[in-house]
Design goal:
This protein has 361 residues and is of the alpha/beta class. It is built from 7 helices and 29 strands. The chain has a 7-stranded mixed β-sheet with strand order 5-4-1-6-9-8-10. It has a 6-stranded parallel β-sheet with strand order 12-15-18-21-24-27. It has a 6-stranded parallel β-sheet with strand order 13-16-19-22-25-28, with no helix packed on it. The structure holds guanosine-5'-triphosphate. The site of guanosine-5'-triphosphate (GTP) has 22 residues, from helix 3. The site of guanosine-5'-triphosphate has 22 residues, from helix 3.
Length: 361
């Protein structure tokens, strides 16, 4: 139903990514390397593939990192601007602030949270928005466990009925997937100059005022990369072709090795592991479903499972790392055990000698 030449995209990338610390201490979440490229690269490749050409990134936390990587967007086939906020404006305020940078040609705005990996057909969301003559349309995804999310019930025509906070007995498995289409006038009505939450203020306010809010309900691949466990899983799904992207810098497979990565003949990589540039993996080591960032070194007979090893980190021989995050430049000695939820902050040193650390997930 029509093209997307009058649809512009706003991508929200201003959050602090606190749940992903310490990885986000130096790099904003949408710029973390996921399957070999900054996450935003996967998202922009999907936006471009859908036929959207005009994109504004709403930045706040570490804004400069985005503009130096993305430039004017031409390498993605996009016309892109990064618009820094004077202070963090929240999701709704961020949408309004970014949209103010758009030319008048665009009467529809498609908004993306910059940390969602999804296989939704973007054109189908816009088609439903137009067919329903909606003021705003939300991508709603069906999830197996909706108790962890606010739910969004819809009626038989797809019209949103309510916005519900997290509850133990949700009446529906449909949750807000962090992707919306707005009529431009609706965005223009979001207040300026203060923080506004689109989820808590804009959408419920629109519903109270009788606006037509549509839900585009489906169940394709969807993952919010906000936690270390989700981040690791998203990377592994991209590497293995389970999550959709056209920005993978190599063939789909059980592992992705970037330039200069070296593994000993007796080492093994599996379950969608990524080895960054110049990573070294020693004899007898196994790296399973993990992300090992540029320049990290893994010794001999090490097992790394569902973990992130930050850039330049060193893991000593015989060490076990399970469901953990090892920050930039950390040095972990030989014979250590890091398990479930351990996070080591950048630059610290753990001595040899079998020290055991456990944390809460
Ligand atoms: P946590 O601190 O771990 O909750 O992560 P986050 O800061 O990214 O927050 P959250 O996941 O709730 O944010 C959803 C999306 O909105 C992400 O893409 C954020 O980058 C973005 N976002 C959150 N707050 C702001 C803001 O004040 N300004 C802008 N431009 N984007 C924001």
């Amino acid at each position: 139903m029509g093209g997307l030449d009058r649809t512009a995209a706003v991508v929200l990338v201003g959050g602090q990514g606190s749940r992903l610390r310490p990885l986000t201490a130096s790099t904003p979440k949408p710029m973390l390397p996921t399957a070999g490229v900054p996450f935003i690269g996967h998202l922009l490749s999907r936006i471009a593939a859908a036929g959207i050409r005009r994109v504004v990134l709403g930045t706040s936390y570490r804004a400069e990192v985005f503009s130096s990587y993305l430039g004017d967007g031409s390498s993605f086939g996009l016309q892109l601007d990064c618009v820094p906020e004077p202070e963090p404006l929240g999701t709704g305020g961020g949408i309004r602030h970014a949209a103010d940078a758009l030319e008048d040609d665009y009467d529809e705005i498609m908004v993306f949270n910059g940390d969602i990996l999804s296989g939704v057909d973007l054109g189908a969301v816009v088609d439903e928005h137009r067919a329903a003559s909606a003021d705003a349309t939300l991508h709603l995804v069906r999830v197996p466990d909706p108790t962890a999310f606010g739910c969004v019930p819809t009626d038989d025509s797809g019209r949103v009925e309510r916005f519900l906070e997290k509850t133990l007995n949700p009446p529906t498995d449909q949750v807000n997937a962090g992707c919306y289409v707005f009529r431009r006038e609706v965005v223009n009505a979001i207040p300026t100059g203060r923080a506004v939450s689109v989820e808590r203020e804009t959408f419920p306010g629109l519903l109270d005022r009788g606006a037509r809010l549509q839900g585009h309900v489906e169940s394709s691949y969807w993952l919010d990369l906000g936690t270390p466990a989700a981040f690791v899983r998203g990377c592994a799904d991209l590497v293995q072709g389970i999550a959709p992207t056209s920005a993978l810098p190599g063939p789909v497979g059980t592992a992705l090795l970037l330039e200069g990565a070296k593994i000993a003949g007796s080492a093994s990589l599996s379950d969608g592991t990524t080895l960054g540039r110049e990573v070294v993996v020693g004899d007898g080591s196994r790296v399973i479903g993990s992300v090992v960032m540029d320049g990290a070194r893994i010794g001999d007979n090490v097992t790394v499972t569902r973990s992130v090893i930050g850039p330049g980190a060193v893991i000593g021989d015989e060490t076990v790392v399970n469901d953990a995050v090892v920050g930039d430049g950390v040095s972990v000695g030989a014979g250590c055990e890091l398990r479930e939820g351990v996070r080591l902050w950048p630059g610290i040193t753990i001595p040899d000698g079998g020290l055991r650390f456990s944390g809460s997930a």
